[in-house]
Amino acid sequence: MTGSNKSRGIRNNNPGNIRWGDEWQGLVPQAYRTDKSFCQFISPEYGIRAMIIILRNYQSKYGLKTITGIVKRWAPPNENDTQAYIRSVATATGTDADKPIDLTDSRKLFPLLQAIIKHENGSQPYGLDVFIRALDLV
């Protein structure tokens, strides 16, 4: 994919489309930021790292243990077709949307990340190595 054909999240190395707010590790320096709404990271590993931290916080701090609970917070209905998003992620992960999912287990975490990235961007261009490096940054 050339630069102009990539989705915003892929261009920004922010495949979860995380909005500006927290000062994440690996953000592009302020002088080089061009997106007013969404974080821009120096590599996809840092964007995926932020996703991992947010998703794990959903479980540990807010008790969101299911795909339904997680996606409702990740992609609120005022911005998204949340029900379609839930169905998409549940189908892609092969996980019942209302059954608990353990995000400390990379065998559950990686498919969830991949499904969110595909839903957010229309594609999921990263190999397993990128997810492993992102997890190593957490």
Explain this structure to me?
- α2 packs across α6 and α3 (67-74) crosses α4 (82-93).
- The chain has six helices and no strands.
- It has helices spanning 8-11, 44-62, 67-74, 82-93, 106-121, 128-137.
- The chain is mostly helical.
- The chain has one domain.
What distance separates the N and C termini? 28 Å
Give the overall shape: globular
Characterize the quaternary organization of these chains. single chain
Unreliable residue runs: none
Average pLDDT: 95
Element order, helices and strands?
HHHHHH
Number of domains: 1
User: Helix count, per DSSP?
Assistant: 6
Report the C-alpha radius of gyration, rounded.
Answer: 14 Å
Name the structural class: mainly alpha
Give me the count of strands: 0
Largest sheet: none
Keywords:
single chain, 138 residues, mainly alpha, 6 helices, 50% helix
Topology readout:
Blueprint: H1 8-11, H2 44-62, H3 67-74, H4 82-93, H5 106-121, H6 128-137
Helix pairs in contact: 2-6, 3-4, 4-5
Summary of the model, kept short:
This protein has 138 residues and is mainly α.
